[in-house]
Structures are given as C-alpha cells and as structure tokens.
Specification:
mainly beta, Immunoglobulin-like, 5-stranded antiparallel sheet
C-alpha cells in the first residue's frame, strides 16, 4: 500500500504542476468491487495546508466512474454518492460534510463515464487522509470504496 500511496502523491504532484487532469485513464483510485466500477479522482482545486481554513480554501475534485469489466447490468442511472474525508491517525476525525453533485460533462459522444463533483473539502491539517466513498441507489447503499491521500 505504501508504494500505491507514493504513486498517488506523484500523480497529485504532476497534476498540480499542470499536467492534464485526465492524463492517466488506466488509474483506478476507487475500486467498487460489488458493482465492478473503477473510480478515478481528479483534483480541480487541490487542497493546501493553510494557517486558518476559510471557504475560499475549500478543495474540489471530480470522481469519474467507469465499468471495470463487461457488466451484465448497467450502472444505475439514479446513482448517488457520498464522500467523507477522515484522518486515520487522528482516530478517524473528519471534516465538515462535503457537497456532492452529479455532473453531465461527457468527453465525447462515446463517453460512458458518470462523474460527480465533490466540493467543500476542508482538510484541516497535513498528514494522511482517507476518503470513504459510498454509492447509493434509491436510498440503498450498493457499494463503497476508499483511497488514501497525503497532504503535505
């Protein structure tokens, strides 16, 4: 897991330095095993360590969901997502609730991805953050996955 987390830091670093947000389509940050869906994380506004967090410091990201393998059932069109960042080293202490909205932006006409924009991400200190992501349909939880992010 350490190597994977280190790779993600490199991905984040490259993105922050101006590489295209959709540069690595084979990357799968979130593995939703039950639904056979891969989730890829793209920072739109990266988090930063600041002395005092204000609303202008909120980070924003997009999570893109795509099928991992041939599926027998389509991804539910009424899919909802919740995202909860916590710090494992602080006993699971988290942040204010994030705001998640489904977007309809398609990259091209053959694009089957479902995208969610996650806003109001307030990471209050440097260290390792765990993002717990849950997928729901009609109020019922279908699957969950998480990824680790190191804020320096």
């Amino acid at each position: 897991m350490f190597k994977l987390a280190k790779f993600r830091n490199l991905s984040f670093f490259l993105f922050a330095m101006g590489s295209p947000a959709w540069a690595n389509p084979s990357q799968c940050d979130l593995d939703f095993k039950k639904l056979k869906i891969c989730g890829t994380v793209h920072w739109e506004k990266a988090p930063q360590v600041v002395e005092m967090i204000t609303p202008k410091d909120a980070a924003t990201l997009t999570i893109e969901l795509k099928p991992k393998a041939p599926r027998t059932k389509a991804i539910p069109q009424d899919l909802e997502m919740t995202v909860k960042p916590t710090m494992p080293s602080m006993g699971g202490h988290g942040t204010e609730p994030t705001r998640v909205t489904r977007t309809t932006a398609a990259l091209d006409k053959n694009d089957s991805a479902i995208r969610f924009q996650v806003q109001d991400i307030f990471l209050s200190m440097s260290g390792e953050w765990k993002f717990q992501v849950k997928l729901k349909s009609q109020g019922k939880e279908l699957d969950q996955a998480s990824w680790l992010f190191e804020l320096k």
